[in-house]
Amino acid sequence: MLIFIIILTFASIALGVMSIYWLTSRSTSTVTARLETMDPALALVENNPVTTMAERFAEPLNRLVPISAVAAAKLQKQLLQGGYPSQDAAIVFRAIQVTLVLALPIIFVTLCIILNASARSYVIFGAIGAVIGLYLPRYILWKKTLSRQLRIRWALADALDLMVIAVEAGLGLNAALNRVGEELKDTHRDLHHELELVNLEIRVGRSRDEALRNLAERTGVDDVRSFVALLVQADRYGSSIARAVRVFADSLRTQRRQRAEQASQKAALKLLFPLTAFLFPVIIMVILAPALFNLIDLFSGL
Q1: Rounded CA separation 30/46 (Å)
Q2: How far apart are alpha carbons 127 and 197 in whole angstroms?
Q3: What is the pLDDT of residue 302?
Q4: Could you report the per-residue pLDDT of 118-148, keeping only the tens digit for each?
Q5: 100 pLDDT exceeds 80?
Q6: Torsion sign, CA atoms 182, 188, 193, 197
Q7: Which domains can be identified in the chain, with CATH numbers?
């Protein structure tokens, strides 16, 4: 057993050293060298060390465990809604996921060997480590996506109020979106980033309808999707954008109040189970303990 632990430790150290050398010893391509001679800042896009390491590490792993085109598109959409718009985000996520699937079972099995556990424990804890490594990144991404969508949902009401003011002041829709995005830079950074992407897409030549629909796809928030549909219809039929946004802001504020009331009503039900499980047994013990001790003393005296 001791010899097996020594061999496993040596193999882990050797593989770690070889992996670090293989990841860091990337030869500079001709395109990167020419970009560095022209402007060093231009080479940062291609020569990003994090992206380079992730790509080189994920390439053999993706060959071992390939992913379908449908699953890749779904993963890219989930990362986009979680706040990772980079094209390399899926590669980094895939590398982290496959690395955890391989590393956690090895760690758990090594701990079982050190603790002299049975051979059955190797299989059980190895399978548990693989399951954790497979679903832990997706769970973290899901929680981050929900948190980001909640921040965008709460920031949308302030953005609508600012847009009404900007449109009524005489600004066009594009200028109003740009102005609102600048005003939300310090308070609501998630929505500011999304509106900035909308303005950039419009500047590079995309239609405003397409840029707004991309906004709805990137956020995945129902309120943003309704707001985008409202802007598209108001722009297409030539109706007053300020009046439509004001009506939508009032309805959104009403929905926001209803959500708060619904959450407050759910709080009483959620508090019922912790009170029943932890507080009531303690109260019963405090009330009945003196009587119980008196009964014990009474029967022991007999």
Answers
A1: 11
A2: 42
A3: 62
A4: 778 888 888 898 899 889 989 999 999 999 9
A5: yes
A6: negative
A7: 36-149 (no CATH), 151-257 (1.20.81)
Cα–Cα distance list, 268 to 223, 233, 276 (Å):
27, 42, 12
- Kindly report the pTM of this predicted structure: 0.68
Cβ contact 215:228 at 8 Å: yes
126 burial type by CB count under 10 A (0-12 exposed, 13-18 middle, 19+ buried): middle
Q: Which two tokens stand for residue 268?
A: 């009483």
What is the Cα–Cα distance from 251 to 245, expressed in whole angstroms? 10
Please give the share of the chain, as a percent, with pLDDT higher than 90: 4
- Under the banding of pLDDT at 50, 70 and 90, the label for residue 51 is low
The number of beta carbons lying within 10 Å of the beta carbon of residue 195 is: 23
Look at residue 43 in the predicted model and tell me its pLDDT.
42
26 contacts 51 by C-beta, under 8 angstroms: no
What Rg value do the Cα atoms of the chain yield, rounded?
A: 29
- Could you tell me the end-to-end alpha-carbon distance of the chain, in angstroms, rounded to an integer? 61
